[in-house]
Amino acid sequence: MASPTDPSLPAKTSSQAEVKELLSDVVERAPGEAAKMLLPYPDEYIVEMLTLLNPAQAQRVLRKLKSERRQLVMAVAAPHVRQQWARNQEFRDNTVGHMMEPPLAVFLPGITVAEATEDLRPLVAHAFITYAFVTDEEERLLGVVAMREMLLARPDQTLAEIMIRGPFRLDPRMELVDAMRATMVRHYPVYPVCEEDGKLIGLIRGQMLFEAHTVELSLQAGSMVGVEKEERLGTRWTRSFRFRHPWLQANLFLGFIAASVVGSFQGTIDRLVILAVFVPVVIGQSSNTAVQTLAVALRSITLGELQTGKEKRLIWKESFLGILNGCLTGISAGVAMFAFATFQKSPNALALAFVVFLSMAASCLVAGVFGALIPLILRRIGTDPAMASSIVLTTITDVASLAVFLGLATWLI
Fold this sequence. Notes:
The chain is α+β, with helices and mostly antiparallel strands. The protein is 63% helix and 6% strand. It has 17 helices and six strands. The strands form two sheets. Strands 1-2-3-4 form a four-stranded mixed β-sheet. A two-stranded antiparallel ribbon has the order 5-6. A hairpin with a 5-residue loop joins strand 2 (131-135) and strand 3.
């Protein structure tokens, strides 16, 4: 691998096409792999690529660089970029502060439109500027000025005369989902980010905000079944194998637990072989109920709807839906069991139908309760609620449905 200062590597790309090609590769890869891809390039080029990424992704890639290399990269970045990167690292991932951009067009209220325009000319050549931000001597945000207002204003007017006072702003500690909900009805292209005392510390673009949250939502489905968030289409098969295989081994071990339940009722199955036909029916129904509940719970958590105090409401609702759906599907399954057992000339046709009905109702109730509880418990202990929750939930529902189904058959028949 070439060193960071290898003269055979260009300090800049030779064409716009090369920039787009490499940028596309970096975007498609996990942060760790993207960092490895950029390692052979000069520090100046790494800075150039990071500034083209979504700020949240740029922070993740920067964090994956080794400390020494990260310091070298930050050292060659423009002062305002370096300062912003350092500031963003103070905030947690998936917060507004973690993905801020530096506010370049910042002026005092007494600056005239003509003076501000002169200062803006060199800035717009290197950055896309939507608003001019007006602050006091302590950098507290006073107002914003849209480029349209500057265009229509007289050159001798001050920014204080044409600015929009007390603009909407975001707190850097806001979760992305909270910021997305707060900006839903505003649709501004850029939002200032301020501390509690009103000090302007960055800006965030609406497009980047929704893009970052969309990526986070897309990662949730994989997390439910043990796929790491860093895995992408371009991830090497060896790395994907390391990500996935441990969870498959865990799933196999948990499957043995369910198998042991079947083994403990071997005598009942030997006596009533017809039960084996309906085992997958009961398991499948409870698993589907559990996954439906889990999806709703995770969506509510991700969208910020499941605030403190609403957990009981979720559990009661899903418990009710579980028993209701279980009873209705249990009736259909019971009728099917009665018809099948009658066809097989079983003397226990009615009892078997009743067992299937009760098992279906009880299993779906358990599925609804645990489908809501598992993500809540994981969130309470500080773990990602989506991480392999489907694997754990499937095991619980399988064990519960088998134990109820075979246990009732043993007891009643």
